[in-house]
Amino acid sequence: MNLPATRLHPSWTMLAGDFPAYPGFDRWPQRSQRQMSALTRRDRQACMAKIVVSAERAIDAPADAVYRYVADMRDHHPRFLPPAFSDFHVESGGVGAGTVTRFKVTAGGRTREYRMRVDEPEPGRVLTESDTGSSLVTTTTVSPRDGASLVQISTAWDGAGGIGGVFERMFAPRVMQAIYADGLERLNAYARGQRPEQ
Questions:
Q1: So where are the chain's domains?
Q2: Beta strands 126-131; 137-145: pairing state
Q3: In the 8-state DSSP scheme, what is residue 95?
Q4: In terms of Cα–Cα distance, which of 139, 37, 129 is closest to 91?
Q5: Contacts for 84 with CB less than 8 Å, ≥ 6 apart
Q6: What distance in Å separates the CA atoms of residue 73 and residue 102, rounded to the nearest whole number?
Q7: pLDDT one digit per residue (tens) for the chain, 198 residues
Q8: For residues 130 and 174, what is the distance between their CA atoms, to the nearest angstrom?
Q9: Is 128 in contact with 119 (CB distance < 8 Å)?
Q10: pTM over 0.70
Q11: Domain 8-15+25-192 has what CATH class?
């Protein structure tokens, strides 16, 4: 079976509108420190952006088997993680909803630790991993396709504000896309090497 190349879809949606013109601008010197702090916080939040990075690939294995490999955090999932992931272990549970995992990801010269809670909005098709320490959520969707399957991975998080957020939106999607492309290739190789009962 000839499989199409991995398709990657970076996207991000700016939540900020035009720079707000506050009523009474000429009276700002008379505003209290508390009022000014509140306005600063509001501007900072307005400049934040939701960042979404997605990738998909056809997997040469039935959808039910592929979903099982993704959802089994003890026996299958760690076996096709890219080298960017390290110190992966299951804190509680092990398969599907309720599982909690910990791992590190090294990307762009930086290493960060994640603690993820697994949920299954659509058992057998959609699995989410939510970072307990941030807004980051990764959604994996497995759909049947002509006896094989299509796997889509999408991660979304609230980006930083200011100049740091600009660089984050420029570079983070590229780094994560490379990791996801590698992970999907590894998942395809792993799924093809499994016996049907596994």
A1: 8-15+25-192
A2: antiparallel
A3: B
A4: 129
A5: 105, 106, 107, 179, 182
A6: 11
A7: 444 445 544 333 323 333 333 344 344 344 556 655 554 555 454 455 788 889 999 999 999 999 999 999 999 999 999 999 999 999 999 999 999 999 999 987 889 999 999 999 999 999 999 999 999 999 999 999 999 999 999 999 886 656 655 555 556 677 888 999 999 999 999 999 986 655
A8: 21
A9: yes
A10: yes
A11: alpha beta
**Paired tokens of 187:** 């998942």
Looking up tokens 């959609």, which residue turns up?
Answer: 126
- Residue 164: both structure tokens together: 């740091």
Q: For residues 101 and 73, is the Cβ–Cβ distance under 8 A? A: yes
Please identify which residue in the block is written with the tokens 């395809």.
188
CA atoms within 13 A on the CB side of 57: 21
Sequence-separated (6 or more) residues with CB below 8 Å from residue 114:
102, 103, 104, 105, 131, 133, 136
Longest pairwise C-alpha distance within the chain: 74
Residue type, 26: D
